[in-house]
Design a protein that fits this description.
The complex is a heterodimer of chains A (337) and B (339). Chain A has 337 residues and is an alpha/beta fold. In chain A, 30% of the residues lie in helices and 22% in strands. Chain A contains 11 helices and 12 strands. The longest helix of chain A is centred in the middle third of the chain and has 18 residues. By secondary structure, chain B is an all-alpha fold. Helix content of chain B is 71%, strand content 0%. Chain B has 12 helices and no strands. The chains are: A alpha/beta (337), B mainly alpha (339). At the A-B interface, strand 6, helix 4 and helix 5 of A face helix 9 and helix 10 of B.
Chain lengths: 337, 339
């Protein structure tokens, strides 16, 4: 997508990732729900790749598969040059230090029964620090790097505020010095007044440590502030992928435009009329061959029921909608010419 | 809850043995009390070879629950734990100071309470007070042993079965098989199952403990299972996996500590329940062998006397059962409501 950003290869490369959840009902019949359906992207060092979409679109599942916290059904993930999906957990465990995660709800991400320090200590072992004194030193340094006093680590998770705890969660994820950080809605459980601080902290840390971020969020302001690349996900598929400015200022897919218009962002300005989506996300739509949005899309016509591939509209900007590419004027977009 | 707990030590805290010594220096009274208690318990352990195993169980239990009496963070459970501890200590060292509970004295048979015989005597002239105190050892000992055995077997099995279903391949099958087995155990009425086994094998203390625990294993299995299920995929478990921890360690360090509250609450109820089963078995004559002082057996001996107005024979052991059960229920209730 953007091969020119760095000379070295990407930190992580995902190809045609598929994840099915199989459940059985009372009669032991199998039900397959495809949470992720053929997703591909890559992230370079120092770059943020954001996935946006409604709840249930499968965006968190992408991150979890990437970190091998859940198995994949198909596809490949190449991390630091190696295919990792087929590695057994036992052999993969030492590699975990290179990829870490920041959770949506910091209170749920810490064991309520232990102090924050002991939670952090577990992560220092990953980078091979065995002596207690050195571990404490590493913890103190990590806690300072997120702007807190080291003493706070002796409290329990319930004894610090949500914003502080999210900082500690970030400190914890950085302890093993990872190259890739999966940020799963890192600000959505926080007060609006705290969100900006956390975003700035994350940007700061990224710059300092050349971190690759996979950001999953539905707060479009946070994504605009952090992302280099943005993918819009709907029912397991990317419907639009591009640089941040391509997606925000020049959104082509009706779903992307619906999300942006619903968020009432002031900037960047978007051409065309606001698009209003109707109804709600429904997993039934993921089973049909054509466009999965067609039931909610104001521009849907018969041809939308044919399979829709991701197509390039401009360099690095992919859209999964034939009308947006072939009939932009009809759906309220300025003509490409 | 916004203040730092006074126990929290900074990064300068001493480590290992040094930490224990420092803690001991800070609270000399507690150390003294603890040492005194250990000495008392040691005496209780060696004085009589009979029921020594039961006294070991009670001693271990006393040592385990004693710290909760001081724990300021668990203010709600302190009174109930203190009463329970007093009851256990009474059961351990009380028998040292009473008369012989087995000594027959037909001349004094069915004497009313009064004078030296606080609780009166039974139809064989035995001192009921001595028998109630000695019975405490047996009832509490069997009750705790049976409940502890059930926890030790049921809790890890329950936790493992859910955890395996969620994080280990093929764990779902293990989970279902275990559940079906425990269901088939639970299909029998508890007392009927116990009666059947005792009738087949014959009553003895180890058999009684085994039976009472085996009917309780499914209770813990299901309880732990349902307590673990909501946290088995919690974010902090995922975080522990991100930290590269093996599954067994996650289970022991992160999952079990988070369900101990629920299991502990059930444990107290279960001891009470075990005492009741033992009493019920003794009442129908399938409990402990005859001359042994046991509360349930004493109630059975006494209830024939009730019609003649000799209330004391059944009342005092009955009150002992009531008191122990109420204390345990209270304890369970308080534990459940602490966070």
């Amino acid at each position: 997508m953007n091969a020119d950003s760095t000379a070295a290869g990407p930190v992580v490369e995902v190809r045609e990732l598929v994840k099915d959840y199989v459940t059985r009902d009372a009669r032991l019949r199998q039900h397959v729900a495809r949470a992720v359906d053929g997703v591909s992207f890559e992230i370079h060092a120092g770059e943020t790749f954001a996935i946006v979409g409604e709840s249930g679109s499968g965006k968190t599942t992408v991150g979890r598969v990437l970190l091998k916290l859940t198995s994949a059904t198909d596809g490949t993930v190449i991390f630091r040059g190696d295919e990792i999906l087929d590695i057994k957990e036992r052999h993969f465990r030492p590699e975990r230090r290179h990829m870490q995660m920041v959770f949506q709800d910091p209170l749920a991400a810490f064991d309520p029964q232990t102090t924050i320090r002991s939670s952090l200590r577990e992560f220092t072992r990953l980078s091979g620090i065995e002596s207690r004194a050195e571990q404490n030193e590493a913890i103190a340094e990590a806690v300072r790097s997120v702007g807190l006093e080291p003493e706070i680590a002796d409290r329990r998770p319930s004894q610090v505020s949500g914003g502080q705890l999210q900082r500690l969660s970030i400190a914890r994820s950085l302890l093993p010095e990872p190259e890739l950080l999966f940020l799963d809605e890192p600000t959505s459980s926080l007060d609006v007044s705290i969100r900006g601080q956390i975003v700035n902290l994350l940007l700061d840390l990224q710059e300092r440590n050349e971190l690759a971020y996979l950001l999953v969020a539905h707060d479009l302001r946070v994504v605009y502030a952090m992302a280099d690349q943005v993918a819009v996900m709907y029912l397991g598929q990317f419907v639009e992928v591009g640089s941040r400015d391509q997606v925000y200022a020049n959104a082509r897919h009706p779903y992307t435009r619906g999300l942006l218009d619903a968020a009432e962002l002031d900037e960047p300005p978007r051409p065309g009329d606001p698009v209003r989506l109707v109804g709600e996300i429904s997993e039934e739509a993921a089973k049909k061959p054509g466009c999965r949005l067609s039931l909610r899309c104001p521009f849907a016509v018969d041809r939308c029921e044919e399979p829709q591939p991701l197509r390039e509209t401009e360099a690095g900007h992919l859209v999964r909608c034939w009308r947006a590419i072939e009939q932009p004027v009809e759906i309220g977009l300025p003509s490409d010419d | 809850m916004s203040v730092v707990s006074p126990r929290a030590s900074g990064s300068t805290a001493p480590e290992g043995i040094g930490r224990v010594v420092a803690a001991a220096r800070a609270r000399p009274v507690r150390v003294l009390v603890a040492v005194a208690m250990m000495a008392v318990l040691l005496v209780a352990l060696v004085w009589d070879p009979e029921w020594r195993e039961l006294r070991v169980v009670l001693t271990v239990l006393a040592i385990l629950i004693a710290p909760a009496v001081w724990d300021a963070q668990r203010r709600e459970v302190r009174p109930a734990v203190a009463v329970m501890l007093a009851l256990i200590l009474l059961a351990l060292i009380g028998p040292l100071f009473t008369r012989d509970p087995l000594m027959l004295n037909v001349g004094e048979a069915l004497g009313a309470p009064g004078g030296d015989l606080w609780f009166g005597t039974d139809q064989h002239g035995r001192d009921i007070f001595a028998r109630v105190i000695h019975g405490a050892q047996l009832d509490l000992g069997v009750g705790f042993s049976a409940a502890a055995l059930a926890v030790v077997v049921g809790m890890p099995l329950g936790a493992l079965s859910v955890f395996a279903a969620a994080h280990i391949k093929g764990g779902g099958l293990f989970d279902s098989v275990l559940l079906r087995i425990s269901e088939s155990f639970q299909a029998f009425p508890t007392l009927l199952l116990a009666l059947g086994i005792v009738a087949a094998v014959g009553p003895s203390i180890p058999i009684l403990i085994f039976i009472i625990s085996i009917v309780n294993v499914p209770v813990y299995l299901r309880l732990t299972r349902s307590a673990v299920a909501p946290i088995v995929n919690a974010d902090f478990v995922l975080a522990a996996r991100c930290a590269g921890q093996p599954v067994l360690r996650i289970l022991l360090r992160h999952i079990l500590p988070n369900v101990k509250q629920v299991v502990l609450a059930q444990f107290s109820v279960n001891v009470a329940w075990a005492i009741q089963i033992l009493a019920a078995l003794s009442f129908v004559g399938l409990g402990v062998p005859v001359p042994t002082p046991e509360w349930g057996a004493m109630v059975r001996d006494g209830y024939e006397q009730l019609v003649y107005g000799r209330w004391w024979v059944a009342l005092f052991p009955g009150l002992a059962i009531l008191f122990a059960v109420l204390t345990l229920n209270q304890l369970s209730d308080r534990v459940r409501h602490t966070t």
